[in-house]
Amino acid sequence: MTPDATLAARVTVDLDALAANWRALDELSGGTASAVVKADAYGLGAARVAPALARAGARRFFVALPDEGAALRAVLGPGPEICILGGFAPADIAVFRDHALVPVLNSAAQARAWFAAMPGAPAGLQVDSGMNRLGMEADELAGLLPLPPSVGFVMSHLACADEPEHPLNARQLGDFRALTDGLGLPRSLAATGGILLGRAFRFDFTRPGVGIYGGAPFAESRPVVTLEVPVIQLRDVAPGEAVGYGATWTADRPARIATIAAGYADGILRAAGAGGLAAFHAGRRLPGAGRVSMDLITLDVTGCAEIGPGTMVEILGPSQGVDQLAAAAGTIGYEILTSLGSRYSRRYTGG
Ligand SMILES: *Cc1c(COP(=O)(O)O)cnc(C)c1O
User: Would you name the residues annotated as active-site residues?
Assistant: First the structure.
């Protein structure tokens, strides 16, 4: 091993690329973008990501849960608005109050409970426009009118925004309009996919998430994440020898196998092993050989004389983005990002 060799795989987050992606989405939104940083900023570390986005100009942030909001308030300080997509439950009242969190009220019952517990405190409303996941129905909203002036916005969410041709997009747009016309409130419908659907979907502010982090459907995004994993052992196998659990890969020629120090416990999904998982080194593709283990992956590095113990190979980076790795695992870039484990050493560049 070289003296600087390590067993630690490394995630590098490019905060300049992240900020550039947010700015590009903000520009496409007519300067109205908020930033969605739920699930620890899609696995990339909200404590570093959110301040970088605030410096880029984001003033309103969305997370899913009150505890995420409290942690975010600690890093962002008192200025930015922090909204909780999951809604409001009375048992969490102290967290909302102590950290000045803004609930996105998803039902009439939640709204009444909030208005009673926190009179005058800012809130948003979510209406359901056809996804049938979160948000109030038309009759629930009607029952709340007139709304108190503390309600600052009304929003909804698109089910199929990553499929521009899907007929539900236009239907949700029409239903959102019908539900919210005349309320006199700032409106928001679009996440990353919705921003790309065009002007009609943008309303008064947008809520990009995955595009900030370099994922589809924002094809113009800059890659944000690099994941490099060290080779910790090499061996030569003879024709007929098998590699890994289940002996699913067998050498049909003399082969060189590199074992690298990350596995499905680190978010390199086991399903990717059967889907054409590969790592890269100096632009060269190193195909997976056999199943992904919990902590280890075996690669076929036959003919790559430059790969030795300690060599860092790339799982995510310029040669393979989150959506390509996702395709190998039969999933989406969102799941690759939020699955990145806690065992990596993390490094932030730029910002
Ligand atoms: C997660 C989420 C977003 C961000 O979605 P992306 O597709 O990641 O841009 C926006 N709004 C709501 C309600 C969400 O749940």
Answer: 38, 245
Please spell the DSSP secondary structure of 14-71, one letter per residue.
EHHHHHHHHHHHHHHTTS-B-EE-HHHHHTT-HHHHHHHHHHHT--EEEESSHHHHHH
Query: Are residues 202 and 285 located together in one domain of the fold?
Result: no
In the block, which residue shows the tokens 């990339």? 44
Kindly give the number of the ligand 1 atom that is closest to the alpha carbon of 191. 9
| pLDDT tens track for 61-80 | 999 999 999 999 999 999 99
Of 207, 235, 259, which residue is a domain's last? 207
Residue 215 Cα: closest atom of ligand 1: 8
Q: Whose CA is nearest to atom 1 of ligand 1?
A: 209
Q: What is the pTM for the complete model shown?
A: 0.96
Average pLDDT, the chain: 97
Bin 15: left if φ > 0, else alpha if -120 < ψ < 50, else beta: alpha
Atom of ligand 1 nearest to the CA of 64: 15
For residue 215 and ligand 1, the question of a CB distance below 6 A is answered with no
pLDDT tens digits along 145-182: 999 999 999 999 999 999 999 999 999 999 999 999 99
Q: Establish if 19 belongs to a structural domain.
A: no
Q: What would the mean pLDDT of 248-268 be, rounded to a whole number?
A: 97
Do 35 and 171 fall into the same domain?
yes
Distance between Cα 346 and ligand 1 center (Å)? 25
Whether 93 and 57 share a structural domain: yes
Our count of domains for the chain comes to 2
269 within some domain: yes
Of the residues 40, 62, 105, which should be mutated to test ligand 1's pocket, given the most ligand atoms within 8 Å of the CB? 62
Q: The domain containing residue 300 runs over which residues?
A: 225-349
Arithmetic mean of pLDDT, 54-66: 98
Give the Cα separation of 194 and 216 in Å (integer).
12
Alpha-carbon torsion (53, 59, 64, 69), positive or negative: positive
Q: Kindly state if the Cβ of 214 falls inside 6 Å of ligand 1.
A: no
Pick the residue whose CA is nearest to atom 15 on ligand 1. 85
For residues 193 and 254, state if they share a domain. Answer: no
**Pocket lining: 321 vs ligand 1, CB cutoff 6 Å:** no
